[in-house]
Amino acid sequence: MAINDLFKALSDETRRKILDLLRFGDLTAGEIAIHFDMSKPGISQHLSVLKNAELVHASKKGQYVYYSLNTTVFQEVMKWMIQFNQSKGENND
Amino acid sequence: MAINDLFKALSDETRRKILDLLRFGDLTAGEIAIHFDMSKPGISQHLSVLKNAELVHASKKGQYVYYSLNTTVFQEVMKWMIQFNQSKGENND
DNA sequence: TAAATGTTTAAGTAATTACTTAATTATTTA
DNA sequence: TAAATAATTAAGTAATTACTTAAACATTTA
């Protein structure tokens, strides 16, 4: 889970909205798609980007695929961000 | 400073490296450019994106332009991130 | 097993983004 | 004031990204 993939995944508005939706509970790909004015394959591709960045987890239940947040990966990004609120010159790589 | 501009600005590796450099102190455009294998106009354009997102501040001193971090804007992003580590369903818009 | 439903993959395209070199602007110094 | 230095703007291009529709795959139900 390269930090680059994380930021790339977060740089798209649609993907951030998908993450927002998932805060309120797990959803199937179809349930997510309903919220957007975009084709289902379009949403599926966004979900694929989020899954690759490990921001979400997918689990198949029958013909449905449930998506859920992977909150631990958000902490990776937080860690990167936090550097910029610390005193100058400390390197936390 | 739309959150979208912030994430778009952060989605590029070169721009994140520029921010990393500025953690250790203010630098001129030229000093920043030295650290990269890229033309100076290329770096200048990245600096422009960072400035637009208000992640950095630019101040001209003679013929030099000094760039510095604007740490307060990082907190905007932090606030967005923090939502995902809170209990489900709380909306902090 | 055929039809229906949910989802993803494939292939192509339009829009955006990250670069390049050349030209321009601003400032300092010989 | 001319030349040198610092930085940006302009214009063009290659690469990437975000979509679309059509096709394929997986599962359930009639």
UniProtKB/TrEMBL annotation, chains A, B:
Domain (HTH arsR-type) ranges: 1-89
Keywords carried by this UniProt record: DNA-binding, Transcription, Transcription regulation
UniProt xrefs under Pfam families: HTH_5 (PF01022)
PROSITE patterns: HTH_ARSR_2
GO molecular function list: DNA binding; DNA-binding transcription factor activity
Zinc-finger in keyword set: no
UniProt cross-references to CDD domains, sorted A to Z: HTH_ARSR
Keyword set includes rRNA processing: no
Name of the protein in question: Winged helix-turn-helix transcriptional regulator
